[in-house]
Amino acid sequence: MASEGMIHVIDDDEGARESLAFLLSSAELTVRTYDSAVRFLQDFAGDTTGCIVTDIRMPEMTGLELLVTLKNRGIVLPVIVMTGHGDVPLAVTAMKGGAIDFLEKPFSDDAILAAVGAALNTNHHDARKEAERSSILERLATLSQRERQVLEGLVAGHANKRMAYDLDISPRTIEIYRAHVMSKMRASSLSDLVRMALAAGINIAQDDGPTA
């Protein structure tokens, strides 16, 4: 993978930060690391190419707060957020706030390299994006009403138990519908499904109810 700008890695966990920097550097990418979002904003030189890979839970400034600040400052670099298990609702909020993807830790080397590669190409394929959106809408049209409800629950960050309670069906049935949704939408992961739903313009209102 040839370098197409600086990859800014932001994570307060030194081990995770350096491990990710090593992986990206091994893929011939130019990487700079920061131990906080505040440090990144202090050091950022105004790059117009590259991307940002940031943890979502950090002291001083969270990944969500960073997204707001980037928008306010007119910084348009694509952002990938990294989350721990159970932070999917936060990740969905981040994507609604402008992040282009999220990855749940622990993620594979292939997953982060693919996400960064897609981020680097974000600004070069507007026509392809529109074609992809049309394809996503076609896939959405194949979902049954119940499958669409499960899709909306997943995008809202609801766990299987929560969706089962809301729809008055068993958690096992939710698992079956979830598998159907992933198959019909051709989604390789939850983050892929969320990206598709948001690209298609699905607006899901999240609440503060239980997610487990």
From TrEMBL:
Name by which UniProt lists this protein: Two-component system response regulator FixJ
PANTHER family named among the record's database cross-references: DNA-BINDING TRANSCRIPTIONAL ACTIVATOR DEVR_DOSR
Domain HTH luxR-type: from-to ranges: 136-201
Source organism of the structure: Kaistia dalseonensis
Domain (Response regulatory): residue spans on this chain: 6-120
One protein family per Pfam: GerE
NCBIfam families: PRK09390.1
Lineage: Bacteria, Pseudomonadati, Pseudomonadota, Alphaproteobacteria, Hyphomicrobiales
Modified residues (4-aspartylphosphate): D55
Keywords assigned: DNA-binding, Phosphoprotein, Transcription, Transcription regulation
Superkingdom of the organism of origin: Bacteria
